Amino acid sequence: MSALPILELVGLHKAYGSLEVLRGIDLRVFPGEMVCVIGPSGSGKSSMLRCCNRLESFQSGQIMVGDADISRPDVDINAVRQHIGMVFQQFNLYPHLTALGNVTLALRKVQGKSRAEADRLGMAALERVGLADKAQAHPAQLSGGQQQRVGIARAIVLQPKIILFDEPTSALDPETVGEVLKVMRQLRENGMTMLVVTHEMGFARAAADRVIFMDGGVIVEEGTPADVFGAPKHDRTRAFLARYT
Ligand code: ADP
Ligand code: MG
Q1: Where does the ABC transporter domain lie (predicted)?
Q2: Atom of ligand 1 minimally distant from the CA of 50
Q3: What is the DSSP string of 111-171?
Q4: I want to staple 23 with a disulfide (CB 3.0 to 4.6 A). Which of 37, 79, 196, 217 is the partner?
């Protein structure tokens, strides 16, 4: 691919105290790609995503979002975060706000949009995830799958350059997993760039443009889903995948 990457990690190292969790990550995500990250618990997947919007600091390496180097100490991190959506395992919705209130919060508080304009954009985002009819519901009145779709609407309403998903379906009842994965596939079809940590191997295999296998703070292997799932090159990848089949 010749286009400039939307997100580029170069030699990323991160430690918590003396515990090294990322040991030289090089990763590029190109416009319109959906890259799925798989790997065992504790391999550093969440830490990597959290570094990308500076929810975590890191010791060395570089993270570029488009042509902006977000590793620089003088970077305006709030501006950067508006370009990088994040969808969490635990949704992280505000319980006292409606679905629409959650989706429009950053538009109003960070971008200073009027309530009318924020509501218009928020409703459009809720429509894209199939929840326009739940705009006035509070999170407690929604299923896990619906809450996560609100989480996705909250990310897309800011028109980010990329959305990072950290195990978006891991906290869901099995019967609501499919509706969230379906919304993610629709985003992908509409050209959204996405970096998705997931344990849904069927989804990664069917929907990803590229799959990354992480273990022990490094990228062990990457390739097309057919490469990684169909013909894994490394023993560690094979051992990991064997647990899911
Ligand atoms: P994954 O998402 O692949 O399960 P994480 O990035 O969450 O991996 O964790 C990588 C390693 O870092 C694990 O050993 C985990 O216990 C450790 N870790 C994660 N967050 C913290 C933290 N805030 N403080 C100390 N250690 C952490
Ligand atoms: Mg994690």
Answers
A1: 7-241
A2: 6
A3: S---HHHHHHHHHHHHHHTT-GGGTT--GGGS-HHHHHHHHHHHHHTT--SEEEEESTTTT
A4: 217
Distance from the CA of 29 to the center of ligand 1, in angstroms?
A: 23
Mutate-to-test residue for ligand 1 from 12, 13, 14, 21, highest number of ligand atoms within 8 A of CB: 21
Residue 245 is predicted with a pLDDT of: 66
Extract the tokens encoding 223: 């390739």
Looking at residues 180-186, what average pLDDT do you find? 97
Query: What is the 42 CA–ligand 1 centroid distance (Å)?
Result: 6
CA 48 to ligand 1: nearest atom? 6
| Ligand 1 nearest-atom number relative to CA 49 | 6
Report the alpha-carbon distance of residue 93 to residue 96 in Å, rounded.
Answer: 9
* pLDDT the model gives residue 81: 85
**Whole-number pLDDT of residue 244:** 81
**Tens digits of residue pLDDT in 132-147:** 999 999 999 999 999 9
Which atom of ligand 1 has the smallest separation from the CA of 47? 6
**Percent of the chain beyond pLDDT 90?**
89
How far away, in angstroms, is 21 Cα from ligand 1 center?
7
Task: Let me know: does 240 contact 38? Beta carbons within 8 Å.
Answer: yes
Distance 142 CA to ligand 1 centre (A): 30
